[in-house]
Design brief:
Elements lengths: L2 H6 L2 H31 L11 H30 L2 H19 L5 H29 L3 H28 E6 L6 E5 L3 H26 L13 H8 L3 H30 L7 H5 L1 H41 L1 H4 L1 H6 L4 H18 L6 H30 L1 E2 L6 E2 L1 H22 L3 H16 L6
Antiparallel strand pairs: 1-2, 3-4
Helix pairs in contact: 2-3, 2-5, 2-6, 2-7, 2-9, 3-5, 3-15, 4-5, 4-7, 5-6, 5-15, 6-7, 6-11, 6-14, 8-15, 9-15, 9-16, 11-14, 11-16, 14-15
Length: about 450
């Protein structure tokens, strides 16, 4: 939709719908994903599924990777060429929600893996489509998108607190220090965690109905040019986009490992299981602050510096995790706040940059192709990295084998530093160059004496 069309829509109602979309998009994922590594590997006697570390990695990583790999073919071409984005999202979300709800009743690894793949194929395209839909309706995406996207973070926080407070704890009382509330664990805690999958499925159906009936109409671009996906690949074929894609692959591989290992890591260093979601949600609170300042940062510092800040924060977070024995549990809890600049300054800034560099008629395809790197190839690499590092960092023998988390996180942080070095050496902000060219052209077009 053009800027003129967006301007003709009542701004408050438009923004309210886009914010609600982001809230629901990330609430659906935030309900179950932070707990998944815990309930998938927890003993059956505690209500968990008893999967091995490798089975857990495949259930989460491979399923998401397959979903992201298919999303450019499923979402990009359809939304760019054939159907209205909001209705296509509605269909994907309703079908995905039903699949997720059914998954919550399963106990077999094979069934979980198959249903997780089906769900990922249906849900993963909505990550890129929700971004591109919002960006296409905002007159000034660089300034306005962070204020819309932050509602996704709010959605993640809300479910991360309400679910454990009302479902995983009894006799809840509040306290000043993280994780800010205390209570008694309910019996068979891991089994209650598993209920988050069913709740996420039901919420996804609600989100799908909202998308179909209430999101702004976003028709496809009726282009007679080549397939949208083919043109999208060309956008990443060189220059800053190729460097950003390569850096994102490295960053996303260490980004996803946070969700694979942090829930178990926090438990291993002494945090009660019911506090995992609230503790990890500290990162989402920090993300709100980072997103609030992202527009200012992009305008004052430019994409290159902001992206470097985001990539550097990933490395710093894992290096702090690596010194957990020296720093203590409270320091690790506080360090969750680094997730804010990690996500806002790298992922959110990257999606805005991608939008700036994408031709209008393949915008959805470019966004979903970039989402493939972020949420598909990266998690797949992360899954393998998690398995390799898990084997490399094991200590002990037999039933006494444990993970040396200090070694694990220090290696992960070093991999993050490789991404920082790549971007620092090779990335050039081509969007800034375009802005300068436009300003120069406007200056030359002014009548003499008006410059």
């Amino acid at each position: 939709m053009s800027n003129d069309a967006a301007a003709s829509t009542p701004p408050r109602f438009l923004l309210a719908r886009l914010r609600a979309m982001m809230f629901l998009e990330y609430a659906v994922r935030g309900l179950w994903f932070p707990l998944a590594a815990k309930f998938l590997t927890a003993p059956v006697d505690d209500g968990g599924l008893g999967f091995s570390r490798e089975q857990m990695s495949y259930t989460l990583g491979v399923a998401l990777a397959i979903g992201a790999v298919t999303s450019p073919f499923v979402a990009g071409q359809v939304a760019d060429r054939w159907f209205a984005t909001q209705r296509f999202m509605g269909v994907l979300l309703i079908l995905g929600g039903i699949t997720k709800f059914v998954t919550g009743f399963q106990t077999s690894f094979e069934v979980w893996l198959v249903l997780s793949i089906v769900y990922a194929v249906l849900f993963m395209p909505t990550l890129g489509l929700s971004n591109s839909l919002a960006l296409s309706h905002l007159p000034d995406p660089k300034r306005q998108f962070p204020g819309v996207r932050v509602w996704g973070t709010i959605g993640w926080i809300v479910v991360s607190w309400l679910f454990p407070m009302f479902w995983l704890k009894s006799n809840v009382s509040f306290q000043w220090l993280p994780p800010f509330f205390a209570g008694d664990d309910v019996p068979r805690l891991a089994g209650r965690m598993l209920d988050s999958v069913k709740a996420a499925g039901a919420l996804a159906v609600v989100y799908g109905l909202f998308s179909w009936f209430l999101l702004p109409h976003t028709p496809p671009k009726r282009s007679t040019k080549e397939l949208a996906l083919g043109r999208a690949f060309k956008v990443f074929s060189g220059g800053s986009m190729a460097v950003l894609a390569a850096t994102t692959l490295i960053v996303s591989s260490v980004h996803f490992i946070y969700f694979l290992q942090t829930p178990k890591f926090l438990g291993a260093i002494g945090l009660d299981g019911a506090y995992i979601m609230p503790t990890m949600s500290i990162g989402q609170f920090a993300e709100i602050a980072a997103m609030a300042g992202l527009g200012f940062l992009l305008k004052s510092q430019g994409f290159r510096r902001v992206l470097l800040i985001g990539a550097m924060c990933y490395a710093i977070r894992y290096l702090i995790f690596g010194f957990h024995e020296q720093l203590g549990l409270q320091a690790i809890i506080v360090s969750q706040a680094l997730h804010g600049p990690c996500f806002a300054c790298f992922y959110a800034a990257a999606f805005i940059y991608i939008d700036r560099m994408s031709p209008d008629d393949v915008r959805h395809s470019v966004q979903t192709l970039f989402a493939l790197i972020c949420f598909g190839i990266g998690p797949l690499a992360s899954t393998q990295l998690n398995i390799v590092l898990g084997s490399l960092c094991e200590v002990g023998t037999g039933a006494d084998v444990v993970l040396d988390y200090s070694k694990f996180w220090l290696i992960t942080g070093a991999i993050g530093l490789i991404g920082v070095a790549l971007m620092a050496a090779l990335f050039r902000d081509e969007a800034a160059a375009d802005d300068e060219a436009l300003e120069a052209a406007a200056h030359l077009d002014q009548p003499e004496g008006e410059a």
